[in-house]
Amino acid sequence: MPKHDEGRRAFLVGTAVAGAAATTALVPGARAQTNSQNMPMQGDVMAPAMGGGHGAFFNDDDARTIKAFAERLMPGAPGKPGATDADVLNYIDLALSGSYTDQQEFYRHGLAQLDAHCLATYGKEFRNLSAAQQDETIAALEHGKTKAFSWPSAQAFFNIVHKHTMEGMFSDPVYGGNKNFSGWILVGFPGAQMQFTEQDMLSKEAFTREPIVGMQAALKSKRG
After folding, report:
1. What is the dihedral of CA 207, 210, 213, 214, to 10 degrees?
2. Which of 12, 15, 20, 134 lies 20 to 30 Å (CA to CA) from residue 178?
């Protein structure tokens, strides 16, 4: 794993440890759910899904861009899950078709400007750049050093995608991210529990009991 990725991971994991408990219910409003056809739902109202094999909100190209962007923000490594492992893309896709519908135009304009910047700088869209070029691009956005962005600004776009990536990495899996509790496992967060025993509180060993949401999913699976 490159030192650049390792340093970024260490910083993000360090900040996530303090905030993991607060991210178990980050998305406002009703939970993003799916019906029997795996179409995204928001409460009792079905969210609009795009056809042609697309996601709930993103088309295929934009999905690849967001997936790559999130992975560079939270890169994976052997034994250390990243944004792709946690299915951050699915989280953001569902959120934009549900609780974050007010940010759809923000993402549309931001992604179009991102591609314009990358085409002008590298001759390729962000999703087709090397990891090093993607890192350069993200750094340019973070520091507002781009000419292609007007609205949203480059820094605003970076901040929102970064925020949503962290939510998808560490929020409750019920919202579509943190797949297999990968984010929680990464920071050693035990998730929701009915109670912590005195033995749990005094133990210096890593807490290994499965979060309640995981037990519920396992029970549902057994019942069919």
Report:
1. 150
2. 134
Q: Are 110 and 154 contacting, i.e. CB atoms less than 8 angstroms apart?
A: no
Residues near 127 by beta carbon (within 8 Å), at least 6 away in sequence: 61, 64, 65, 67, 68
Residue 38 is given by DSSP the state -
Containing 223, the helix (H) or strand (E) segment is: helix 212-223
In angstroms, the CA 116 to CA 35 distance is 37
Helix ranges restricted to H, 123-211: 131-142, 154-170, 182-187, 198-202
| Predicted TM-score (pTM) of this structure | 0.73
Cis peptide preceding 190, ω within 30 of 0:
no
Question: Contacts from 34-40 at CB under 8 Å and sequence distance 24+?
Answer: 40/93, 40/94, 40/97, 40/98
130 — phi, psi (to 5°)?
-70, 165
Q: Which residue has the tokens 């990358």?
A: 118
The helix-helix angle for 60-73 and 154-170 (nearest 10°) equals 80
